[in-house]
Amino acid sequence: MTAQQGLYGGRKVREGTVVSDKMEKTVVVSIQSNIRHPLYRKTIRRERKFMAHDEHETAKMGDVVRIVEAAAVS
User: Is the entire prediction scored with pTM above 0.85?
Assistant: First the structure.
């Protein structure tokens, strides 16, 4: 593994807050990012939600978690 790939082998890593744990073995993670509007230069807060697998169901609402991208499983 090279230094550029890091711990997760070049996969995207995001940190967010668990907003739902009602499903079995799945949690919904909300990730917020701040972007600057290209014309008006005002900072805009964006929110994106991801569904993540939680095999042992340890994550609860409000927990800060780190998710790593993986290949799609159907």
Answer: no
Cα separation, 74 vs 66, whole angstroms: 22
Instruction: Give me 70's structure tokens.
Output: 């993986």
Residues 17/23/74/1 CA torsion (nearest 10 deg): 30
- Residue in the block written with tokens 């009602």: 22
Sorted by sequence, the CB contacts under 8 Å of residue 53 that are 6+ apart come out as 25, 26
Distance CA 45, CA 10 (A): 26
Residue 51: pLDDT band (50, 70, 90) is very high
